[in-house]
Amino acid sequence: MMRKTLLATAALGLGLAFGGTASAQALDKAKACFIYVGPKNDGGWSQYHHEAVEKMQAHYGDKVEVQYQESVPEGADAERVMSQMALSGCNIIFATSFGFMDATNNVAGKFPNVKFEHATGYKREHANVSTYNARFYEGRAVTATIGGLMTKSNKLGYIGSYPIPEVIMGINAVYLAAKKVNPEVELSVVWAFSWFDPAKEADAAKALIDQGVDVIFSHTDSTAPLIEAQKAGNVTGFGQAADMPEFGPYPRVSSIIDDWAPYYIERVGAVLEGKWEQSDRWDGIASGEVKIGEFSSAVPDDVKAKAQEVMDGIVAGTLHPFTGPLNKQDGTQFLKEGETISDADLAGMMFYVEGIKGDIPK
Amino acid sequence: MIRLEKRPTPSRTWVAVTPVLAVLLTMIAGGLMFWALGKNPFEAIRTIFWDPLFNEQFAAYSRPQLLVKAGPLILIAIGLSLGFRAGIWNIGAEGQYIMGAIAGAAVGLYFYPEPGWHIFPLMVAAGLVGGMLWGLIPGLLKVWFGTNEILVSLLLVYVAESLLAAMAIGKMKNPDGGGFPGSRNFAKYEASANPELIAGTGMHLGVVTAFIAVIAAYVLLQRHMLGYNIRLTGQAPRAARFSGVSPAALVLICMGASGALAGMAGLFEVTGPGGQISIDFASGYGFTAVIVALLGRLNPIGILLAGLLLALTYIGGELAQFMLSLPKASIQAFQGMLLFFLLALDLLSNYRIRLARREVAR
């Protein structure tokens, strides 16, 4: 198509102007660009990406120029923003939300000399697209151990964003880990259908608390669930994607922290050295991409010890949160005794494990 | 002392001058805001208004994008303006836009993967009918039960959004999508695609339809009896009734027509720039179009210009955000200023300012 050629030519021209088109060529200076799905100060997901970006910038100093855009809607707008970024001379563009997937691949096809990195996606339609994700479910196994032991009503609540495998594996991980330490637990799931919507997240938290839930997990980006937990007074919560220490020592008793800085430093470094290659990264607690926030003083010592044990087991590789025997919600066998789940099954997980009530929205 | 004196008819000079004046005032006030944020105000204003149109680096891409962004805004706003003129306030175009997209998508998915020239026209017809029916619900309720169309049409947006989410994760989910939400990509399937008519121009059928709608609305309002009745009802409802205009018919015509145009806009978007039915498909076009309609003073030509202007501030605003690291909120504030000055200066078209000494009783 003519437009594609036109854009590619423009990109080529820019590439020349900015020093080198061949991907194997080292650069003196690189421009790294980022798009966030929420505001950069959302207190959660986008903020931790942004903080990692700042660490990366500090690491390279003048060698790397950073540009970013916050609150980019998923869809046609994201495609335009990334195209304009590529035209402005970005060498590498990070799209930091699942919903940017098609847009990232579309733009990558038009700008073969720009590198694209898509967080939490699975499509790599062109050689210049990589994906990266973190094993948040490992962190959930730790926080769910705390939640399972601290609940008094034995009712746990989960605020889900969208019913995609990423979120469903988190729900399953929470249920399995909590069930392991407390066979009485029940888990209720409420869907917000948004990554960042403080009002909806707060409503979801209220609905859960009204049902008698006293431990809330969330897979959304804002601090609203913790604010509701704080109002309720006797509801335990966790920092999600960010430490959220301002809610400690209670209701926030621990947290799952995303640390993208090492990855950003590595990938931007690869562009500088001309050694960037397509990859599909999925790291967890062991490599530091997922961190567990400090257990607060509200957590009893024996609970802390138990959570630490889970964490140490995951780091050592002796404990996998998804280990058989494990049945699907409908009772069919999924994992045999001692078997652990494959990454492929995990990445496509679209079912609840046995014991979770309710249906995944269809 | 300053006195305001109502003009018998709006001043033609001021009607023509105020939009330009409003843009200038926005540039000054916005420039001050950018300056207060520590940015070069001239650079910021240039990036927003000039670079998308004339910057060598971006313009080849941004100019066509202007049409892509303005097309649906203009199409929806034209429909809304008919009702607004007659005092019928359809605030739910966003919902009609969504329903049009869903109805059209359903037809497209029904035929998938059949080829055929007849598929796209059928989808457009379905989009039109889908939007129209959704718009007629508040219309019929108003006619039958005297309900308020503002509230009903607005609340139906939330119903449509939930239906959209249900479709994206349920009935319309791409069976080859690995369990992730979102339908098949219509833009990638020839029979249902709405591509650019001439590559590199941004001109797709939706933009063409928007231009046709502008002309049709102009002719309707100036030359046609229905247009006269609409204007008469807005200016003098009682007189209109005496002259035999049926208020009920007018409500249904206006709600149906604005719903139909919004539905078509949704269909052209989902088959073109948007590509697929996804949870976040609706990106606020229906609400922004209300602003466009009012900004264009409910005049077809005015709406055309207002749509292009607003699209420019969106695209230029995106550029300014990542080129100059301006926060998104400042761009929204900037757009708000534009609206504020335009409406505030309306005063000058409708009133004369008199500087007069207080009359003293003799």
Automatic annotation (TrEMBL), chain A:
| Highest taxon of the lineage | Bacteria
A single GO CC term, please?
Answer: plasma membrane
Query: Residue span of the signal peptide, if any?
Result: 1-26
Q: Which UniProt keywords apply?
A: Signal
- The record places domain ABC transporter substrate-binding protein PnrA-like at 30-307
Which PANTHER family does the record match to this protein? ABC TRANSPORTER SUBSTRATE-BINDING PROTEIN (PTHR43208)
Supply the name of the protein. Answer: BMP family ABC transporter substrate-binding protein
TrEMBL record, chain B:
UniProt KW tRNA-binding keyword = no
Task: Report whether Transport shows up as a keyword of the record.
Answer: no
Question: Mind listing the UniProt keywords for this protein, alphabetically?
Answer: Cell membrane, Membrane, Transmembrane, Transmembrane helix
Topological type in the membrane: Multi-pass membrane protein
Location in the cell: Cell membrane
An annotated GO cellular component: plasma membrane
List where the protein spans the membrane.
12-37, 66-84, 96-113, 119-141, 150-170, 197-221, 242-265, 277-296, 303-323, 329-348
Q: Which GO terms describe its molecular function?
A: transmembrane transporter activity
Q: What is this protein called?
A: ABC transporter permease
